[in-house]
Amino acid sequence: MKNSNKDQLYRDFNAGKLSRRGFISRAAALGVAAQAPFFLSAAHAETTTAEEYDYIVIGAGSAGCAVAARLSEDPANKVLVLEAGPSDTNQYIHIPATFPFLFKTELDWDYVSEPQDKLDGGTLYMPRGKVIGGCSSINAMIYQRGHASTYDAWGQSNAGWSYADLLPLFMKSESNSRGASETHGADGPLSVTDLNDPNPISLAMVQGAGEAGFALNDDFNDGDQTGFGLYQVTQKGGYRASAAVSYLHPAIDAGRVTAQAEAMVTRIETAQGRATGVTFMADGKEHTVRARKEIILSGGSFNSPHLLMMSGIGPKAHLEEHGITVVHDLPGVGQNLQEHYMMPVVYTCTQKVSLSQAGTEEQGALFAEGKGLLTSNIGEAGGFLTVNEGAAAPDLQFHFAPGYFIQDGAGNPTDGSDGMTIMPSLVQSKGTGSVTLVSADPMVKPKVNPNVFQNEEDYKILIEGVKVARAIFASSAMDDLRGEEFLPGADVQSDEDLKAYINKYIQTIYHPVGTCKMGDDDMAVVDNELRVHGIDGLRVADASIMPTIINANTNAPTIVIGEKCAELIRSA
Protein backbone atom coordinates (compact mmCIF):
# COMPACT_ATOMS: atom_id res chain seq x y z
CA MET A 1 0.00 0.00 0.00
CA LYS A 2 1.35 3.41 -0.93
CA ASN A 3 2.13 5.62 2.05
CA SER A 4 -0.16 8.40 0.83
CA ASN A 5 -3.12 6.01 0.61
CA LYS A 6 -2.33 4.54 4.02
CA ASP A 7 -2.04 7.93 5.68
CA GLN A 8 -5.35 9.05 4.18
CA LEU A 9 -6.98 5.85 5.42
CA TYR A 10 -5.83 6.56 8.98
CA ARG A 11 -6.88 10.19 8.81
CA ASP A 12 -10.36 9.25 7.55
CA PHE A 13 -10.72 6.80 10.42
CA ASN A 14 -9.53 9.29 13.06
CA ALA A 15 -11.89 11.92 11.66
CA GLY A 16 -14.86 9.57 11.98
CA LYS A 17 -15.33 9.28 8.21
CA LEU A 18 -14.86 5.52 8.37
CA SER A 19 -16.44 2.96 10.65
CA ARG A 20 -14.26 0.26 12.12
CA ARG A 21 -15.61 -2.22 9.57
CA GLY A 22 -15.06 0.33 6.82
CA PHE A 23 -11.47 0.77 7.92
CA ILE A 24 -10.88 -2.99 7.89
CA SER A 25 -12.46 -3.38 4.43
CA ARG A 26 -10.48 -0.55 2.88
CA ALA A 27 -7.28 -1.64 4.61
CA ALA A 28 -7.69 -5.13 3.15
CA ALA A 29 -8.35 -3.71 -0.31
CA LEU A 30 -5.21 -1.60 -0.05
CA GLY A 31 -3.08 -4.53 0.98
CA VAL A 32 -2.67 -4.25 4.73
CA ALA A 33 -1.33 -7.43 6.33
CA ALA A 34 -3.75 -10.06 7.61
CA GLN A 35 -3.97 -8.56 11.13
CA ALA A 36 -6.60 -6.21 9.71
CA PRO A 37 -8.68 -5.76 12.87
CA PHE A 38 -5.76 -3.88 14.41
CA PHE A 39 -5.56 -0.16 13.81
CA LEU A 40 -2.15 1.24 12.98
CA SER A 41 -1.72 4.94 13.61
CA ALA A 42 -0.32 7.07 10.83
CA ALA A 43 3.29 8.13 11.25
CA HIS A 44 3.74 11.84 11.79
CA ALA A 45 7.40 12.77 11.72
CA GLU A 46 9.44 14.86 9.35
CA THR A 47 12.96 16.09 8.99
CA THR A 48 13.47 19.48 10.53
CA THR A 49 14.98 21.80 7.95
CA ALA A 50 14.25 25.16 9.52
CA GLU A 51 16.80 26.57 11.93
CA GLU A 52 14.51 28.74 14.05
CA TYR A 53 11.13 28.36 15.74
CA ASP A 54 9.12 30.44 18.18
CA TYR A 55 8.71 27.52 20.58
CA ILE A 56 10.61 24.26 20.84
CA VAL A 57 9.02 21.48 22.90
CA ILE A 58 11.40 18.74 24.01
CA GLY A 59 9.46 15.50 24.40
CA ALA A 60 6.18 14.42 22.79
CA GLY A 61 4.73 12.91 25.96
CA SER A 62 1.49 13.68 27.76
CA ALA A 63 2.33 17.28 28.67
CA GLY A 64 4.47 17.96 25.59
CA CYS A 65 1.68 17.03 23.19
CA ALA A 66 -0.78 19.24 25.05
CA VAL A 67 1.43 22.32 25.32
CA ALA A 68 2.56 22.09 21.68
CA ALA A 69 -0.98 21.73 20.36
CA ARG A 70 -2.30 24.59 22.45
CA LEU A 71 0.55 26.95 21.52
CA SER A 72 -0.02 26.14 17.86
CA GLU A 73 -3.60 27.38 18.06
CA ASP A 74 -2.13 30.85 17.53
CA PRO A 75 -1.24 30.82 13.81
CA ALA A 76 1.56 33.28 14.49
CA ASN A 77 3.46 30.65 16.50
CA LYS A 78 5.91 28.36 14.77
CA VAL A 79 6.16 25.26 16.99
CA LEU A 80 8.63 22.37 16.84
CA VAL A 81 8.33 19.15 18.85
CA LEU A 82 11.36 16.87 19.22
CA GLU A 83 10.85 13.27 20.39
CA ALA A 84 13.67 10.81 21.05
CA GLY A 85 11.55 7.78 20.18
CA PRO A 86 9.82 6.74 16.96
CA SER A 87 6.35 7.59 15.75
CA ASP A 88 3.40 5.76 17.26
CA THR A 89 2.76 3.25 14.46
CA ASN A 90 3.13 0.07 16.52
CA GLN A 91 -0.27 -1.68 16.65
CA TYR A 92 0.21 -2.66 20.30
CA ILE A 93 -0.03 1.03 21.24
CA HIS A 94 -3.56 1.36 19.93
CA ILE A 95 -4.98 -1.98 21.08
CA PRO A 96 -5.62 -1.27 24.77
CA ALA A 97 -4.96 -4.74 26.21
CA THR A 98 -1.58 -5.16 24.53
CA PHE A 99 0.38 -2.33 26.15
CA PRO A 100 2.51 -4.69 28.33
CA PHE A 101 3.95 -6.06 25.07
CA LEU A 102 5.63 -2.65 24.67
CA PHE A 103 7.62 -2.95 27.89
CA LYS A 104 11.36 -3.34 27.35
CA THR A 105 11.08 -2.63 23.62
CA GLU A 106 12.44 0.24 21.55
CA LEU A 107 9.37 2.23 22.65
CA ASP A 108 10.45 2.09 26.30
CA TRP A 109 13.33 3.93 27.97
CA ASP A 110 13.49 0.80 30.15
CA TYR A 111 14.74 2.35 33.38
CA VAL A 112 15.77 0.08 36.22
CA SER A 113 16.30 1.49 39.70
CA GLU A 114 19.44 1.36 41.72
CA PRO A 115 19.50 -1.60 44.16
CA GLN A 116 17.08 -0.88 47.00
CA ASP A 117 18.19 -1.41 50.60
CA LYS A 118 14.71 -2.36 51.78
CA LEU A 119 14.43 -4.95 49.02
CA ASP A 120 17.68 -6.71 49.95
CA GLY A 121 19.38 -5.19 46.93
CA GLY A 122 16.52 -5.84 44.55
CA THR A 123 15.69 -3.40 41.78
CA LEU A 124 12.48 -1.94 40.36
CA TYR A 125 11.57 -1.80 36.68
CA MET A 126 10.33 1.64 35.63
CA PRO A 127 9.01 1.85 32.05
CA ARG A 128 8.86 5.25 30.37
CA GLY A 129 7.40 5.88 26.92
CA LYS A 130 10.03 6.53 24.26
CA VAL A 131 7.61 7.21 21.42
CA ILE A 132 5.28 9.89 20.10
CA GLY A 133 2.70 10.16 22.89
CA GLY A 134 5.24 9.25 25.58
CA CYS A 135 3.79 7.32 28.48
CA SER A 136 0.27 8.01 27.26
CA SER A 137 1.11 5.59 24.43
CA ILE A 138 2.10 2.74 26.75
CA ASN A 139 0.07 3.27 29.95
CA ALA A 140 -3.12 1.64 31.26
CA MET A 141 -5.29 4.59 30.17
CA ILE A 142 -6.85 5.13 33.63
CA TYR A 143 -8.34 8.60 33.95
CA GLN A 144 -7.82 9.96 37.46
CA ARG A 145 -7.29 13.50 38.68
CA GLY A 146 -6.39 12.86 42.30
CA HIS A 147 -7.71 14.43 45.48
CA ALA A 148 -8.32 18.19 45.63
CA SER A 149 -6.27 18.53 48.83
CA THR A 150 -3.05 17.73 46.95
CA TYR A 151 -3.51 20.62 44.56
CA ASP A 152 -4.60 22.92 47.38
CA ALA A 153 -1.31 22.10 49.14
CA TRP A 154 0.56 23.04 45.96
CA GLY A 155 -1.40 26.27 45.76
CA GLN A 156 -0.37 27.39 49.23
CA SER A 157 3.08 28.33 47.91
CA ASN A 158 2.36 28.33 44.17
CA ALA A 159 -0.35 30.78 43.21
CA GLY A 160 -2.62 29.46 40.48
CA TRP A 161 -2.22 25.76 41.28
CA SER A 162 -5.07 25.04 43.70
CA TYR A 163 -7.76 22.57 42.67
CA ALA A 164 -10.17 25.42 41.97
CA ASP A 165 -7.56 26.91 39.65
CA LEU A 166 -6.96 23.64 37.77
CA LEU A 167 -10.52 22.29 37.57
CA PRO A 168 -11.37 24.47 34.54
CA LEU A 169 -8.34 23.03 32.75
CA PHE A 170 -9.30 19.45 33.58
CA MET A 171 -12.73 20.20 32.15
CA LYS A 172 -11.28 22.00 29.11
CA SER A 173 -9.03 19.05 28.31
CA GLU A 174 -11.63 16.29 28.40
CA SER A 175 -14.48 15.12 26.26
CA ASN A 176 -16.34 12.90 28.69
CA SER A 177 -18.73 10.39 27.17
CA ARG A 178 -21.15 11.00 30.04
CA GLY A 179 -21.56 14.61 28.95
CA ALA A 180 -20.84 17.96 30.54
CA SER A 181 -21.43 18.59 34.23
CA GLU A 182 -20.19 20.80 37.05
CA THR A 183 -16.97 18.76 37.17
CA HIS A 184 -16.61 17.34 33.65
CA GLY A 185 -16.15 18.73 30.16
CA ALA A 186 -17.56 17.35 26.93
CA ASP A 187 -15.77 19.36 24.25
CA GLY A 188 -12.07 18.85 24.94
CA PRO A 189 -9.53 16.94 22.85
CA LEU A 190 -9.02 14.06 25.32
CA SER A 191 -11.63 11.32 24.99
CA VAL A 192 -12.64 9.99 28.44
CA THR A 193 -15.11 7.13 28.40
CA ASP A 194 -16.54 4.24 30.33
CA LEU A 195 -15.10 0.91 29.24
CA ASN A 196 -16.82 -0.35 26.09
CA ASP A 197 -16.98 -3.92 27.31
CA PRO A 198 -16.01 -4.38 30.97
CA ASN A 199 -14.97 -7.89 31.89
CA PRO A 200 -17.42 -9.93 34.01
CA ILE A 201 -14.60 -10.49 36.51
CA SER A 202 -14.27 -6.72 36.99
CA LEU A 203 -18.02 -6.35 37.44
CA ALA A 204 -18.00 -9.14 40.01
CA MET A 205 -15.07 -7.57 41.87
CA VAL A 206 -16.95 -4.29 42.22
CA GLN A 207 -20.06 -6.12 43.43
CA GLY A 208 -17.88 -8.09 45.83
CA ALA A 209 -16.41 -4.88 47.25
CA GLY A 210 -19.93 -3.73 48.06
CA GLU A 211 -20.75 -7.06 49.67
CA ALA A 212 -17.58 -6.79 51.75
CA GLY A 213 -18.92 -3.56 53.23
CA PHE A 214 -17.11 -0.95 51.16
CA ALA A 215 -18.79 2.01 49.50
CA LEU A 216 -19.29 2.00 45.73
CA ASN A 217 -18.30 4.94 43.57
CA ASP A 218 -19.25 5.58 39.94
CA ASP A 219 -17.15 8.74 39.51
CA PHE A 220 -13.75 9.09 41.18
CA ASN A 221 -13.23 12.57 39.68
CA ASP A 222 -16.22 14.50 41.00
CA GLY A 223 -14.64 15.33 44.35
CA ASP A 224 -15.25 12.09 46.26
CA GLN A 225 -12.67 9.35 45.71
CA THR A 226 -13.66 6.88 48.43
CA GLY A 227 -15.16 3.56 47.36
CA PHE A 228 -14.89 1.03 44.54
CA GLY A 229 -16.04 1.02 40.94
CA LEU A 230 -15.09 0.77 37.29
CA TYR A 231 -12.50 3.27 36.10
CA GLN A 232 -13.06 5.65 33.23
CA VAL A 233 -10.37 5.42 30.56
CA THR A 234 -8.74 7.53 27.87
CA GLN A 235 -10.12 5.58 24.93
CA LYS A 236 -12.23 6.30 21.88
CA GLY A 237 -14.28 3.59 20.23
CA GLY A 238 -12.31 0.92 22.05
CA TYR A 239 -8.92 2.27 20.94
CA ARG A 240 -6.33 4.10 23.05
CA ALA A 241 -6.75 7.88 23.09
CA SER A 242 -3.18 8.94 23.81
CA ALA A 243 -2.08 12.54 24.14
CA ALA A 244 -0.62 12.15 20.65
CA VAL A 245 -3.91 10.98 19.14
CA SER A 246 -5.86 13.60 21.09
CA TYR A 247 -3.62 16.66 20.79
CA LEU A 248 -0.54 16.31 18.61
CA HIS A 249 -1.72 14.45 15.51
CA PRO A 250 -4.62 16.86 14.85
CA ALA A 251 -2.23 19.80 15.18
CA ILE A 252 0.23 18.19 12.75
CA ASP A 253 -2.53 17.28 10.30
CA ALA A 254 -3.68 20.90 10.38
CA GLY A 255 -0.16 22.06 9.53
CA ARG A 256 0.25 23.92 12.82
CA VAL A 257 3.10 21.87 14.34
CA THR A 258 6.34 20.36 13.08
CA ALA A 259 7.18 17.13 14.89
CA GLN A 260 10.35 15.13 14.49
CA ALA A 261 10.60 11.61 15.86
CA GLU A 262 13.89 9.85 16.61
CA ALA A 263 15.48 13.16 17.54
CA MET A 264 17.52 12.74 20.71
CA VAL A 265 18.10 16.10 22.40
CA THR A 266 21.56 16.22 23.96
CA ARG A 267 21.81 19.80 25.19
CA ILE A 268 19.83 22.96 25.80
CA GLU A 269 21.93 25.84 24.52
CA THR A 270 22.22 28.92 26.74
CA ALA A 271 23.81 32.34 26.43
CA GLN A 272 23.99 35.05 29.07
CA GLY A 273 21.45 33.34 31.29
CA ARG A 274 18.91 32.60 28.57
CA ALA A 275 17.97 29.38 26.79
CA THR A 276 18.50 30.01 23.11
CA GLY A 277 18.26 26.70 21.31
CA VAL A 278 18.46 22.93 21.31
CA THR A 279 21.07 20.50 20.01
CA PHE A 280 19.87 17.04 19.01
CA MET A 281 21.00 13.92 17.19
CA ALA A 282 18.99 12.61 14.22
CA ASP A 283 19.99 10.40 11.30
CA GLY A 284 23.44 10.06 12.82
CA LYS A 285 24.08 13.80 12.65
CA GLU A 286 24.07 16.65 15.15
CA HIS A 287 21.60 19.47 14.55
CA THR A 288 20.93 22.76 16.35
CA VAL A 289 17.70 24.74 16.20
CA ARG A 290 17.02 28.12 17.77
CA ALA A 291 14.05 29.32 19.79
CA ARG A 292 12.90 32.90 19.23
CA LYS A 293 10.64 32.88 22.27
CA GLU A 294 10.86 29.87 24.63
CA ILE A 295 11.91 26.26 25.08
CA ILE A 296 9.58 23.92 26.95
CA LEU A 297 11.19 20.82 28.46
CA SER A 298 8.71 17.94 28.69
CA GLY A 299 10.99 14.94 29.01
CA GLY A 300 9.44 13.46 32.15
CA SER A 301 10.65 12.94 35.69
CA PHE A 302 13.81 11.08 34.68
CA ASN A 303 14.79 12.69 31.39
CA SER A 304 13.99 16.32 32.23
CA PRO A 305 16.43 16.57 35.17
CA HIS A 306 18.94 14.53 33.17
CA LEU A 307 18.88 16.98 30.25
CA LEU A 308 19.04 19.99 32.56
CA MET A 309 22.18 18.57 34.17
CA MET A 310 23.65 17.68 30.78
CA SER A 311 23.12 21.35 29.90
CA GLY A 312 24.94 22.62 32.99
CA ILE A 313 21.83 23.38 35.04
CA GLY A 314 21.80 21.52 38.34
CA PRO A 315 23.72 20.87 41.57
CA LYS A 316 27.11 22.51 41.11
CA ALA A 317 29.25 19.92 42.89
CA HIS A 318 27.53 17.04 41.09
CA LEU A 319 28.02 18.65 37.68
CA GLU A 320 31.67 19.41 38.39
CA GLU A 321 32.19 15.81 39.51
CA HIS A 322 31.32 14.78 35.95
CA GLY A 323 33.26 17.54 34.23
CA ILE A 324 30.18 19.46 33.10
CA THR A 325 30.52 23.24 32.87
CA VAL A 326 28.11 24.83 35.34
CA VAL A 327 25.71 27.27 33.69
CA HIS A 328 23.51 27.69 36.77
CA ASP A 329 23.77 26.09 40.19
CA LEU A 330 20.32 24.65 40.92
CA PRO A 331 20.60 22.08 43.72
CA GLY A 332 17.05 20.69 43.45
CA VAL A 333 17.44 19.27 39.94
CA GLY A 334 16.99 15.50 40.18
CA GLN A 335 15.94 15.53 43.84
CA ASN A 336 12.48 14.99 45.39
CA LEU A 337 11.65 11.89 43.31
CA GLN A 338 8.34 10.35 44.41
CA GLU A 339 6.47 7.26 43.20
CA HIS A 340 3.50 4.99 43.83
CA TYR A 341 3.90 1.28 44.55
CA MET A 342 1.68 -1.78 44.22
CA MET A 343 1.84 -5.54 44.63
CA PRO A 344 -0.50 -8.35 43.55
CA VAL A 345 -3.09 -10.43 45.34
CA VAL A 346 -3.86 -13.12 42.78
CA TYR A 347 -6.43 -15.89 42.52
CA THR A 348 -6.92 -18.41 39.78
CA CYS A 349 -10.18 -18.03 37.86
CA THR A 350 -12.43 -21.02 37.26
CA GLN A 351 -14.00 -19.62 34.08
CA LYS A 352 -12.41 -18.93 30.67
CA VAL A 353 -13.19 -15.21 30.70
CA SER A 354 -9.90 -13.62 31.76
CA LEU A 355 -7.42 -11.74 29.59
CA SER A 356 -5.57 -15.02 29.00
CA GLN A 357 -8.21 -15.64 26.31
CA ALA A 358 -7.59 -12.36 24.44
CA GLY A 359 -5.52 -13.81 21.58
CA THR A 360 -8.24 -15.78 19.81
CA GLU A 361 -9.73 -15.07 16.38
CA GLU A 362 -13.07 -14.56 18.08
CA GLN A 363 -11.60 -11.74 20.18
CA GLY A 364 -10.07 -10.17 17.07
CA ALA A 365 -13.52 -10.13 15.48
CA LEU A 366 -15.05 -8.60 18.59
CA PHE A 367 -12.37 -5.91 18.63
CA ALA A 368 -13.45 -4.96 15.12
CA GLU A 369 -16.80 -4.07 16.73
CA GLY A 370 -15.22 -2.18 19.63
CA LYS A 371 -15.90 -5.02 22.03
CA GLY A 372 -14.14 -7.90 23.68
CA LEU A 373 -11.03 -8.54 25.72
CA LEU A 374 -8.69 -6.50 23.50
CA THR A 375 -10.52 -3.30 24.49
CA SER A 376 -9.56 -3.91 28.12
CA ASN A 377 -7.12 -1.46 29.69
CA ILE A 378 -6.17 -4.30 32.10
CA GLY A 379 -6.68 -2.07 35.15
CA GLU A 380 -10.42 -1.96 34.57
CA ALA A 381 -11.65 -1.25 38.09
CA GLY A 382 -10.39 -0.01 41.40
CA GLY A 383 -11.04 2.00 44.47
CA PHE A 384 -9.73 4.22 47.23
CA LEU A 385 -9.66 3.85 51.02
CA THR A 386 -8.03 5.76 53.85
CA VAL A 387 -5.92 3.71 56.25
CA ASN A 388 -4.12 6.32 58.33
CA GLU A 389 -6.47 8.36 60.47
CA GLY A 390 -6.12 12.05 59.80
CA ALA A 391 -4.86 11.61 56.24
CA ALA A 392 -6.04 14.48 54.07
CA ALA A 393 -6.82 12.10 51.22
CA PRO A 394 -7.14 8.34 50.64
CA ASP A 395 -3.74 6.66 50.98
CA LEU A 396 -4.66 3.23 49.60
CA GLN A 397 -5.73 2.70 45.99
CA PHE A 398 -6.66 -0.57 44.29
CA HIS A 399 -6.17 -1.65 40.69
CA PHE A 400 -8.30 -4.61 39.54
CA ALA A 401 -7.19 -6.69 36.55
CA PRO A 402 -9.35 -9.43 35.01
CA GLY A 403 -6.24 -11.50 34.48
CA TYR A 404 -2.79 -12.08 35.89
CA PHE A 405 -0.55 -9.05 36.46
CA ILE A 406 2.53 -10.12 38.39
CA GLN A 407 5.88 -8.29 38.43
CA ASP A 408 4.90 -5.89 35.64
CA GLY A 409 3.43 -8.82 33.71
CA ALA A 410 6.81 -10.56 33.44
CA GLY A 411 5.85 -12.95 36.26
CA ASN A 412 2.54 -14.07 34.77
CA PRO A 413 2.00 -17.82 34.30
CA THR A 414 2.54 -18.86 30.68
CA ASP A 415 0.41 -22.01 30.78
CA GLY A 416 -2.71 -20.34 29.38
CA SER A 417 -4.54 -20.57 32.70
CA ASP A 418 -6.98 -17.92 33.86
CA GLY A 419 -6.42 -15.63 36.81
CA MET A 420 -7.53 -12.37 38.40
CA THR A 421 -5.55 -9.77 40.30
CA ILE A 422 -6.25 -7.08 42.86
CA MET A 423 -3.29 -4.78 43.40
CA PRO A 424 -3.26 -2.80 46.67
CA SER A 425 -1.46 0.42 45.82
CA LEU A 426 0.46 2.80 48.06
CA VAL A 427 -0.33 6.34 46.92
CA GLN A 428 0.63 8.56 49.85
CA SER A 429 4.21 7.59 50.69
CA LYS A 430 6.24 10.51 52.04
CA GLY A 431 9.61 9.03 51.01
CA THR A 432 11.71 10.68 48.31
CA GLY A 433 14.49 9.55 46.01
CA SER A 434 16.73 11.03 43.35
CA VAL A 435 17.89 11.05 39.74
CA THR A 436 21.66 11.54 39.39
CA LEU A 437 24.26 11.39 36.64
CA VAL A 438 26.36 8.39 35.71
CA SER A 439 28.33 10.12 32.99
CA ALA A 440 28.72 13.36 31.06
CA ASP A 441 27.68 11.41 27.95
CA PRO A 442 24.05 12.40 27.24
CA MET A 443 23.39 8.97 25.73
CA VAL A 444 24.03 7.28 29.10
CA LYS A 445 20.88 7.07 31.20
CA PRO A 446 21.02 8.53 34.72
CA LYS A 447 20.81 6.58 37.97
CA VAL A 448 17.34 6.43 39.51
CA ASN A 449 16.94 5.73 43.21
CA PRO A 450 13.30 5.83 44.36
CA ASN A 451 14.31 4.89 47.93
CA VAL A 452 11.31 2.61 48.41
CA PHE A 453 9.97 2.03 51.92
CA GLN A 454 11.94 4.88 53.42
CA ASN A 455 8.94 5.16 55.73
CA GLU A 456 8.17 1.89 57.56
CA GLU A 457 4.54 2.99 57.92
CA ASP A 458 4.15 2.32 54.19
CA TYR A 459 4.08 -1.42 54.90
CA LYS A 460 1.06 -0.95 57.17
CA ILE A 461 -0.97 0.50 54.30
CA LEU A 462 -0.13 -2.32 51.87
CA ILE A 463 -0.73 -5.04 54.47
CA GLU A 464 -4.18 -3.59 55.08
CA GLY A 465 -4.65 -3.61 51.31
CA VAL A 466 -3.96 -7.36 51.18
CA LYS A 467 -6.63 -7.94 53.82
CA VAL A 468 -9.16 -5.85 51.87
CA ALA A 469 -8.35 -7.70 48.64
CA ARG A 470 -8.83 -11.07 50.31
CA ALA A 471 -12.18 -9.93 51.72
CA ILE A 472 -13.36 -8.92 48.24
CA PHE A 473 -12.25 -12.22 46.74
CA ALA A 474 -14.08 -14.05 49.55
CA SER A 475 -17.40 -12.36 48.72
CA SER A 476 -20.30 -14.33 47.30
CA ALA A 477 -20.10 -12.27 44.10
CA MET A 478 -16.81 -14.03 43.38
CA ASP A 479 -18.00 -17.57 44.17
CA ASP A 480 -18.48 -18.61 40.55
CA LEU A 481 -15.07 -17.24 39.53
CA ARG A 482 -12.81 -17.83 42.51
CA GLY A 483 -10.24 -20.61 42.40
CA GLU A 484 -7.21 -21.01 44.66
CA GLU A 485 -5.21 -18.12 46.07
CA PHE A 486 -2.17 -18.03 43.81
CA LEU A 487 -0.35 -15.14 45.56
CA PRO A 488 0.57 -14.43 48.33
CA GLY A 489 -0.76 -17.94 49.09
CA ALA A 490 -2.89 -19.28 51.93
CA ASP A 491 0.16 -19.87 54.15
CA VAL A 492 1.18 -16.19 54.08
CA GLN A 493 -0.90 -14.66 56.87
CA SER A 494 1.16 -12.85 59.52
CA ASP A 495 2.17 -9.23 59.06
CA GLU A 496 5.83 -10.26 58.99
CA ASP A 497 5.21 -12.84 56.30
CA LEU A 498 3.19 -10.32 54.31
CA LYS A 499 6.00 -7.78 54.64
CA ALA A 500 8.45 -10.31 53.20
CA TYR A 501 6.01 -11.02 50.38
CA ILE A 502 5.63 -7.31 49.63
CA ASN A 503 9.41 -6.88 49.44
CA LYS A 504 9.59 -9.66 46.85
CA TYR A 505 6.66 -8.61 44.65
CA ILE A 506 6.50 -4.82 45.00
CA GLN A 507 6.59 -2.81 41.79
CA THR A 508 6.07 0.81 40.83
CA ILE A 509 2.82 2.04 39.29
CA TYR A 510 4.89 3.98 36.70
CA HIS A 511 4.10 7.37 38.30
CA PRO A 512 7.45 9.12 38.95
CA VAL A 513 7.11 12.82 39.77
CA GLY A 514 8.81 15.69 41.53
CA THR A 515 12.40 15.88 40.23
CA CYS A 516 12.08 19.46 38.92
CA LYS A 517 9.68 20.59 41.59
CA MET A 518 7.75 23.82 41.52
CA GLY A 519 8.18 26.33 44.33
CA ASP A 520 10.17 29.20 45.75
CA ASP A 521 12.37 27.37 48.26
CA ASP A 522 16.07 26.52 47.85
CA MET A 523 15.32 23.11 46.29
CA ALA A 524 12.72 24.33 43.80
CA VAL A 525 13.61 24.08 40.11
CA VAL A 526 10.73 26.04 38.55
CA ASP A 527 8.50 28.83 39.77
CA ASN A 528 4.71 28.85 39.72
CA GLU A 529 4.79 29.78 36.03
CA LEU A 530 7.02 26.75 35.33
CA ARG A 531 10.01 28.97 34.51
CA VAL A 532 13.35 27.45 35.44
CA HIS A 533 14.89 29.49 38.24
CA GLY A 534 17.84 31.50 36.98
CA ILE A 535 17.38 30.73 33.26
CA ASP A 536 15.22 32.91 31.02
CA GLY A 537 13.26 31.44 28.15
CA LEU A 538 13.10 27.92 29.60
CA ARG A 539 10.16 26.18 31.25
CA VAL A 540 9.53 22.61 32.41
CA ALA A 541 6.09 21.11 31.79
CA ASP A 542 5.67 17.50 32.88
CA ALA A 543 5.12 15.45 36.05
CA SER A 544 8.56 16.40 37.34
CA ILE A 545 7.23 19.81 38.46
CA MET A 546 4.81 18.31 41.02
CA PRO A 547 6.00 19.41 44.48
CA THR A 548 4.22 16.41 46.02
CA ILE A 549 2.72 13.39 44.33
CA ILE A 550 -1.01 13.20 43.82
CA ASN A 551 -2.79 10.19 45.29
CA ALA A 552 -3.94 8.66 41.99
CA ASN A 553 -2.84 7.87 38.45
CA THR A 554 -0.79 10.71 37.03
CA ASN A 555 -1.52 10.92 33.30
CA ALA A 556 -4.52 13.28 33.42
CA PRO A 557 -2.75 15.74 35.77
CA THR A 558 0.33 15.66 33.53
CA ILE A 559 -1.78 16.58 30.51
CA VAL A 560 -3.26 19.44 32.54
CA ILE A 561 0.26 20.62 33.42
CA GLY A 562 0.78 20.95 29.65
CA GLU A 563 -2.50 22.85 29.35
CA LYS A 564 -1.47 25.12 32.23
CA CYS A 565 1.94 25.80 30.71
CA ALA A 566 0.40 26.89 27.42
CA GLU A 567 -2.03 29.13 29.29
CA LEU A 568 0.82 30.73 31.26
CA ILE A 569 2.82 31.37 28.08
CA ARG A 570 -0.14 32.89 26.27
CA SER A 571 -0.93 35.19 29.18
CA ALA A 572 2.68 36.32 29.72
From TrEMBL:
Positions bound to FAD: 131, 265
Transmembrane intervals: none
Names of required cofactors: FAD
Keyword Oxidoreductase: yes
InterPro entries according to UniProt: FAD/NAD-bd_sf, GMC_OxRdtase, GMC_OxRdtase_N, GMC_OxRtase_C, TAT_signal
Keyword annotations from UniProtKB, A to Z: FAD, Flavoprotein, Oxidoreductase
Gene3D superfamilies linked to this entry: FAD/NAD(P)-binding domain, Glucose Oxidase, domain 3
GO MF annotation list: choline dehydrogenase activity; flavin adenine dinucleotide binding
Glucose-methanol-choline oxidoreductase N-terminal domain sequence ranges: 300-314
Record EC number: 1.1.99.1
Stored PANTHER family: CHOLINE DEHYDROGENASE, MITOCHONDRIAL, GLUCOSE-METHANOL-CHOLINE GMC OXIDOREDUCTASE
Family: Belongs to the GMC oxidoreductase family.
Protein name, UniProt field: Choline dehydrogenase
